Amino acid sequence: MPKQIPVANEMTKPFWDAANQKRLVVQYCKSCNRNQYPPEAVCAQCESAQNLEWKEVKGQGHIIGYIVIHDSRIRRIQADQPLNMAVVSLDEDPDINFLSHLPGTPVDQVPVGDPVQLIFEEVAPGQLIHEWKVL
User: What are the C-alpha distances in Å from 122 to residues 4, 21, 22, 104, 112?
Assistant: First the structure.
């Protein structure tokens, strides 16, 4: 399935650079010892900007919910509708959630609660994105 091609900006470039190295990173606030994703200019808890850094996390999680998209306005995925869109909770920090199409999982057969493993897919030459695969 065609995927959206990320357009990195100053804030998200470290995330996408790590993805291209097949690594998953989230922001980490040294002031309040808290992870956050998606990236923000300041910590969502203590509002510190100076104490944010990038931290590598393991690519393991669990599916906590999903929807089936039948009528997307995103042209790159319209040909593949209907498709799953799952919410994955990171095992290392359950407050961090990611969205995934769950490659290889049949439509509307998402095993909520099951473990998933991080994978990377190429969406353009030299550009990888993170996805999750049911174990």
Answer: 11, 12, 11, 16, 26
What is the rounded distance in angstroms from the CA atom of residue 59 to the CA atom of residue 23?
8
Mean pLDDT per block of 10 residues along the chain (135 residues) reads 80 97 98 97 96 97 97 84 96 97 96 98 93 97
Residue 91 tokens read as 């095992």
DSSP calls for 80-125: T-SEEEEEEEETTEEEEEEEE--TTPPTT---TT-EEEEEEEEEET
Q: How confident is the model over 10-27, as pLDDT tens digits?
A: 999 999 999 999 999 999
Q: How many whole angstroms separate alpha carbon 85 and alpha carbon 110?
A: 9
Report the C-alpha gap between 13 and 128 in whole angstroms.
13
